[in-house]
Amino acid sequence: MSHTVEIENLTKSYKKFRLDSVSLELPEGLILGLIGPNGAGKTTTLKILMDMIRADSGRVRIFGLDHRTHTKEIKNRVGYVGEEPQFYGDKSVSWTGGWISGFYRNWDLNLFEKMLTDFGISRTKKTGQLSKGMRVKLSLALALSHRPELLILDEPTAGLDPVVRRDVLERLRHLSKSQGRSVLISSHITDDIARIADLIVFLIDGRVTLAESKDGLLAKWKRIHFQEKALEEGITSSLKCRKTQVFGSSGITDNYPSLKQRLAAGLDSQSIKVENLNLDDILIACVKGDET
Amino acid sequence: MWRLIRKNSLMFLLYQGLYFGLFFPLINRDRLLGENPLDLSFLLFLNTYMIWLILGSVWGQEQMESKNNGYAFLSTLPIRSWQIVGSKYALVFMATLTFVGVHLIWYAVSFDDPVFLAAGRTSLIRVASMCLLLAGLYYLGFFRFGYQRFSKIAVAIWLLMIVIPLPLRIILKERFGIRSSDIFLSLNRFNPTLMLSLCLLLFLGTLGLAIRFKENLKITE
Amino acid sequence: MIHILKRNHRIFLVYFLFILILLIGVRFLLGKELNVFFTLMSGIVLFMYTIGALLMSEQYEEKHHGYAILSALPVNNLEITGAKFLLPLVSSFTLTLSLILLFSTFAAPAPDMVLVRSYFLLAASTGLLAAGLMYIGIFGIGYTKFVVVVLSLTTALGLVPMLVMRRNRGRMDEVIENLLAGIRGMDWLVLLPLLLLAYLGLMLLALQIRAHRDA
After folding, report:
1. CA dist C19 to B53, B138, C54, Å?
2. For chain B, which residues lie within 8 Å of any Cβ of chain C, measuring from their own Cβ?
3. pLDDT, greater one: C171 or A2
């Protein structure tokens, strides 16, 4: 499978933050969710991909092209929605669309018009008068109207109401599944990522701490509830986020398939119970590590 | 209000610091060494520099407010509009007073010639009056139109101020028989204290209007 | 590049028309004789036009995060910087030509007209070089910091001519006469290509600075 995005050992240092040897790959036609707490380096990574920030070292290839030497070609094939969509606030929506269309080879005016209608954005309104949600919607409409092969979205659902958020996510899933477009989406709203992503990358303190398919991740990470002495000592000590309460103890494993055999007896006797985790739980476990 | 004044004082301190810290000693060095005694025309020219120092500080300060969405931020704090506007005007007043005060002390210490002294003081008061009036009008414009729009207008006004004296002179002379030198002389005879009082009144008037604009328009630029 | 020009041309055009209409208006108030004050004032306005329009154009970009918008679009640094440098060049020289045409309606001896033309070209060239330096400053440290720095620098530099005037007290007529002779004697066939070359050099420097600066 060819890769739409390949990042190798990307490094960028600021005074109080360092993006440290980030590597990841996004295969064609899949959705990759970049998850991490605030200040983890998600926006920095995406801005480096867009050549809006210069990396100190590392290599980025998009569509097999170097992102620095083929910036224009790449941007013609990429749709980008920034963390805080920026427009010339004194210009109308239709002026903005018309102006931006001039930069792209494959601008589809009908598609843009249709999306404005779908999103309920007034064409005559000045972009500075749009609400935060409307700004995100306009940004999405602009990012999709040149039919990009890759979408880079930085927290695109932040500020959207649940109905529109669901609609946006469905559109993204549709674009990926039926049109084979790749999507790289960052968010700290893990529900959104869980809903649409095929691959998950956890970025914490500027480092990739986890990179896995969503299904693989959810299969590996489980919370184990157990009564005292029901677990082997080796397993207990390997658990993250251990807690001991009146009714028993619990902890999180990141390697459930390999433990499954050794837990079978406990599962049968119901002295051990296994609970599925969501991405939020996994993120918290990753951030807190072995903290109990 | 003191906190607001302190927040806004950076630009004023920078420019006054440059003037008093860099050029003042340079000018005085020449004078003390007796290499190049000060003449009145140079002194008067130096006084007019106050207008640049004050208006430059106002412009720089407002650019920083615009960049950092300062007014939007201030509007979330428990501060009244009059305090926000008042602090701006107070700072202009304090900066003008500092300039005038330091110069007056300088005159008193350095010059003996009473004619020289009187001319210097008169010009200082006149320039200070103009300075207060112009700064008041500047702020009035900023609070009425917002920084972005008003700075465009201000550039046009400055261009106009370069161009307009010539046609004005021609029109006054040809249509009304008034010579511009006569106007200048009569302005020069205008009592400086009266001029200062008038400009102070106008300064306060623009302050009142600016507070009203800020209240009504809620410009958050 | 045309789309970037489309975004920035308005302020240059508005000030251009404002100045031209104003100067044409003043011209018709004057007689046939060349007016020294009008000449001097027009040159200052020509210089200020480039600076003022550029500052206002960049202030707009700053307010609306214009460079961040452009950096997300398929347009490279050369096109952005090129467009930025092209506008002052074209507009300033168009205004210069318009002024030369306007002043040709005066009746004046040929050497005086040479002086007027040379003076306008000098004003436009100085404005243009200042514009190039301003772009370098703005690309390097951002508009707001630049305004603070440039105002401070102007505060500092503003006193230099005064000091020069003091040092040359009693000899100012001679200084002015020399200055005028210098301006009259400028060979613009040589100077104009040199100016364009210098402007191009400033553009390349600005391009380098932009290439190493995050959006």
Report:
1. 26, 22, 15
2. 11, 14-15, 18-19, 22-23, 26-27, 30, 36, 39, 42, 45-46, 49, 52-53, 56-57, 59-60, 63-64, 66-67, 148, 151-152, 155-156, 158-160, 162-163, 166-167, 170-171
3. A2
